[in-house]
Sequence to fold (565 residues):
Amino acid sequence: MKIFVCVKHVPDTAATIKVAGDTGFEDADIKFIANPYDEFGIEEAVSIKESQGGEVVIVTVGGESAPDTIRGALAMGADRAIHVEIDSQFLDAELTAQALKAAIEADGAPELIFTGKGSVDTESFQTPYRLARLFGMPVVNEVSALEVNGGKALATRESGAGEKQVLEMALPCVVGATKGLNEPRYPKFPDIMKAKKKEIKAMGLSDLGVDESAAKVTLVKMEPVPERSQARMLEGSVDDQVTELIRVLKEDEKVLG
Amino acid sequence: MTRTGILVELENGAVKETTLGVMAAAQGGEIFALVAEGDASSVKETLAQYGAATVVDIKGDVMSSPDLAAQVLCDAVSAYELGALLGTASSAGKDIFARAAALMGQPLVSDCVEVNVADKTAKKSHFSGKTVATLKVDAPVFLCTIRPNVYEASESAAAGELVEFNCESADPGLIKIVEVKTDAGGKLDLTEAPVIITGGRAIKSADNFSMLDACAEKLGAAVGASRAAVDAGYAPHSMQVGQTGKTVSPRLYIACGVSGAVQHFAGMKTSKVIVAINEDKDAPIFSKCDYGIVGDIFEVVPKLTEKL
Fold:
């Protein structure tokens, strides 16, 4: 089976983000990682390949340092990769999907495409849907369990309030992965060495016919979110602490009826 | 005045509080409340009271298929010449809006914490809540989902004229729901709950969550869990708050025995009031919350339940 996994190169979730100028951030000293949700997609794709055979291709639309992240995905067992190089961390979701689609299509007919449920940088949760729409494929996002068999996929998705839906779709399809789907493996040293020799094909948006100036969403401002400061600590016996807590929540904060 | 469609979500036949919040965000425009589930005539009065000029009764079982629901939203946008379409960033709302935006080939701003329909600008979290981005949309339709509880319901009486909408589409799309399962997770949807009480590693066992359930019942709260508690097997992933779990924004968040990792804050920092209860006075959570109690959760939580 030919499986593509879309992987985004994002700042580490533990990194401190320093806003620079109106719409940028200082990225020089920040560690970048594979978007955590995408790792569930990589693991799922590699385990399907291991049981059913085939090939796993990583596709990343990202900046010039993205190959570091791509090597990590290759070390998890993917076979090769395509890197669509862009200048900004913030490419419009529709254009990202167009770039992914064109890169995948040029490589060959996909039987299964994984993405993460969303990325932890722009948190826009749209790529799997837009990619599926451009291909005319079915899509299920936030998939926490998956069975792929006989040309069909059964995907389990959390639909809120502890409820889960099981959805059926025909292949080829797009699956947006989330936690619960599997436990992503830690690559071993030989896998990391092997990954260094795997192919990463580089290309640009213009090679794929994607026009960056067609973006319909513009980032006009980025501001840091002020952190809360030290809490007001409630003192006294447990009884006193709880009594005071209920009082402040009701009377001062008015968040309890 | 922008003609603004609102996808109405119902619970037990009544309009969800989160939908009324979305309507508050759309005030200033002419509101078309789109009711695609339940009985539109029974919620017409409420919708009118909160600003709906028109209540659109969408006929057919469109919510049974997310692709069909998305198609119907697109049809409604054309039929009523809507300039904006807003919904709740709930599990269903996020899914349907992303499908609809992809179908229209139009931009969508997800999980907004502030919107300005007239200017077509929206604010949303970037980098796990560490920054807020202001985005401007250049498109004929302004599509947004709004984070639950960031806007409070606010009355603004309008005509609430009831009209029927028979959509032309009946194609269920390419995916089929074959089963719906209910797991052991909380009864209230975490992402939309107005109050949340969360257990961390210090809860020590799955059984001890019953202590939080009891307190939640008094608070009208949903119960959440930290990643440490989920990874230790004390709670299902559906209850996880934070990075790789759910993003929540209740008016009151009570963290019990949660240390306060950056990844936990990523999922709850926009809560209005954050209370932490932890035995360790040096726990990081105390440096970033509103009220703190240093103490044993097994003493403090039952006392809170008793006194509420």
User: Anything to note?
Assistant: Chain B has two domains: 3-165, 190-307.
